[in-house]
Amino acid sequence: MRTDRAVSPWLLRWRRFRRHRAGMGSLIVLLLLVLFVASAAPVAWWLSVDPYETDLLSQYAPPSAAHPLGTDDAGRDELVRLMLGGQISLLVGVLATAVGSAIGLTIGVISGYFGRRLDAVLMRFTDGMIALPLLPLLIVLGALDLTKLGFSAEFAHSGAAGFWRVVVIVALVDWTGIARLTRAATLALKERDYVRSARASGGRPAYIMTAHILPNVATPLIVAVTLTVGRVILFESVLSFLGFGIVAPTPSWGNMLNNAQELVTTAPALAIYPGLLIFITVIAVNFLGDGLQHAFDPRSER
Q1: Closest listed residue to residue 122, CA positions, set 112, 131, 132
Q2: Own/partner pairs for 240-243, CB < 8 Å, 24+ apart?
Q3: 48-56 LR contacts (CB < 8 Å, sep 24+)
Q4: In this structure, what are the phi and psi dihedrals at residue 71, rounded to the nearest 5 degrees?
Q5: How far is 149 from 151, CA to CA, in rounded Å?
Q6: Nearest CA-CA partner of 72 in 87, 90, 52, 86
Q7: Residue 296: CB partners within 8 Å, gap ≥ 6?
Q8: What is this structure's pTM?
Q9: Are the beta carbons of 270 and 259 closer than 8 angstroms?
Q10: 103-133 pLDDT, tens per residue?
């Protein structure tokens, strides 16, 4: 008779995750969102529309066969631009989270492993970053003139510059939680017998940290990183809404919401669509994080 002891730990986690209805539902919602935004090019071809071409004679057109969600204030197809904006918003969330997590992971494991003065310096720096008012800091960094940093004026006013600006800014300020979590796990792991044996055998710190410590802090980090993605998408939306993020005509859900703020009374759908997609995405990511936390916690097994 087969018992749970013969089952892979990842299979057991998947079974626990499947029993978490909110997490499983959120995973399905997120997969549908990814499929939705990835369909931008085929849908644009099928509708024969250019999402960047303006047509002032077709402003605020109602939903129709040619434009399923109507058009915006420049006569551009709203559906395709929502898809393209979703690509930008989701990609910003994933990339910024990946870079920020790498920074936090590096600082956390070095701080926890070496300890003493290095730990004190790195953690005081982390505490200082946590103490900074996040939103004002993001706005200040977003308002930096890239031409004064050596970039060309053409690049500074392009959509690519806005994209990478948001990724870098968010990654530089949103790594503190990962760093503290990694440090706490490293402090506990470095006293384990297998880590002490590796040190006694002459293992170098870099090898011990990558081969023995990092694999064992992966479980809590997966949950923390998942929750970070939703927060980063909100940061991007806020920055773009305030005019410091993705630059038009490149769409993102944030700048589409910003462009529609003065049209709430005349064309409310232009604000409802991107706002609803941001809301659904962030809620789904947070519930997915709850589901992963349930799946990776052995105490949730019943």
Answers
A1: 112
A2: 240/162, 240/166, 242/139, 242/142
A3: 49/76, 49/77, 49/80, 50/76, 51/76, 51/77, 51/80, 51/81, 51/84, 51/251, 52/76, 52/249
A4: -125, 165
A5: 6
A6: 52
A7: 13, 219, 220, 222, 223
A8: 0.81
A9: yes
A10: 999 999 999 888 889 999 999 999 888 887 7
Angstrom distance (rounded) from CA 236 to CA 272 = 18
275-18-4 Cα angle (round to 5): 155
pLDDT per residue as tens digits for the range 66-117: 889 989 888 899 999 999 999 988 898 889 888 988 999 999 999 988 888 9
Query: Which two structure tokens, joined as six digits, stand for 24?
Result: 């499983």
Compute the C-alpha angle 170/171/177, nearest 5°.
100
